Amino acid sequence: MIPSAVLADSGNKQDESELVAWTQAQIEQEIASYASRQQWPDYHTEISISVPASVDHLPACDTALYISAADQQSLPVGYLRRQLECQSGPQPWKLNITAQVSIRLPVIVSTTHIRRDTKLSATMLKPQILTLSRNEAFATRPEQLIGQRTLRRIRSGQIINPLQLQPLWLVEEGDAVVIVASKNGLEASMKGEALQSGVKGEQVSVRNISSGKVIQALVVERGKVETIF
C-alpha cells in the first residue's frame, strides 16, 4: 500500500475531486515504475477514474490515505481495480474504485503473415505506434522476440504477444553441441549433434559424434548440454 498526503476538505466530507486527482497520480506513478522496469520507449497515458456514489457519504480522511491493488493484473493497462483506505481517524473507511487506462507507445507487430512454429527474425518484426486499452502482453523491442518460435499463426500487422511464443531455443535440431559428462568430480566433454530442439533445462536427444550413440542430455546454455545419469 502507498500512503498519501492527507486529503481532506474544510468540511466534514471527503473531497471527491481531490481523491480522483490523487488516485490518478498514484496510477501514473505505478505505470512509470512498470515502464522503467520494462524499458518502454516514450509513451502517453490516458486514465479515467470511476468513483462510486458512496464517496459522497465518506467523512474526510485526516490521516494518510492508502491505495492497493484489488485485482491480480500485473500490467497496468486496461481495466484496473484499486482500493483506497483511510486507516485511522474517528471513522476509518475503504473505497473500491476502477480505472480505465490506455497507453500509446511503439509496440512490435508482424510485417507479414507468420505461420505456426516459425522462428522469428528481424525482418518479420517492426515497431508501430498503437493505443492499447486492454490487458494484453506486448513487446517494445525486437530483441525481446527474435529467435523465439510462434505457437500459433500471426496475421500481418498483429501485435506479437510474448506469451504466445515458445521460449528461445538454446539448442536446435541439427546443431553441433558440446556434450559435458561429469561424475565423481571428474568432467569430460565431447562433440555431439542435437537430434531435438530444446530450451534451457529441457531434456533432448543428442548423438555422440565419436561413438554414434544416442543419449539424453539437459540443455544448459547455447550449444551445450549435460548428460543425465
From TrEMBL:
SAF domain residues: 105-166
Family annotation (InterPro entries): Flagellar_FlgA, SAF, SAF_FlgA
Underlying gene: flgA
UniProt keywords, alphabetically: Bacterial flagellum biogenesis, Cell projection, Cilium, Flagellum, Periplasm, Signal
One Pfam family matching this protein: ChapFlgA
UniProt subcellular location: Periplasm
NCBIfam families the record matches: flgA_cterm
Keyword Hydrolase in annotation: no
Identification of the protein by name: Flagella basal body P-ring formation protein FlgA
Function: Involved in the assembly process of the P-ring formation. It may associate with FlgF on the rod constituting a structure essential for the P-ring assembly or may act as a modulator protein for the P-ring assembly.
Family according to the record: Belongs to the FlgA family.
